[in-house]
Design goal:
The chain is mainly alpha-helical. The chain is built from 3 helices and 2 strands. Strands 1-2 form a two-stranded antiparallel ribbon. Strand 1 and strand 2 form a beta hairpin.
Length: about 100
C-alpha cells in the first residue's frame, strides 16, 4: 500500500480485515511477513462476525467506518469517500503484484 499512499500523500487508510479467533488467540494467515499467530495488536475497531458476513456485510461495515473516519480526520484533506475508496482499491491491486 505504501507506494500508492505516498503518491496521494497519505499515511494510511483504515482497512477492514478478517481473522480467526481460536481459543482466545487471534490467527491471521493473510498477513505478509508474519506468522499466523504473531500478535495483532492495533485495531481502530473490532467486531465479531460469522462467516456468512464476510461478503456484503463486511464491505458495508467498512464503508460506514471509513465515512465516519473521514468525517473525523483532517489527514485526507477534502477528499471524498469515493476518492478514498478508489485509492484503497489501487493499494490492494499494488499489494497483489
Amino acid at each position: 500500500m505504501g507506494i500508492v499512499l505516498d503518491r496521494y500523500g497519505l499515511q494510511y487508510i483504515p482497512e477492514a480485515h478478517c481473522y480467526l479467533r481460536y481459543e482466545g488467540v487471534r490467527i491471521d494467515i493473510t498477513r505478509s511477513g508474519a506468522e499466523p499467530t504473531d500478535p495483532i495488536d492495533r485495531f481502530l475497531s473490532e467486531e465479531a462476525i460469522v462467516p456468512a458476513q464476510i461478503g456484503d456485510y463486511k464491505v458495508q461495515l467498512h464503508h460506514r467506518f471509513l465515512r465516519s473516519w473521514l468525517a473525523n480526520t483532517d489527514m485526507v484533506g477534502s477528499r471524498s469517500f469515493a476518492e478514498i475508496w478508489k485509492i484503497r482499491e489501487e493499494s490492494i491491486v499494488a499489494l497483489a503484484q
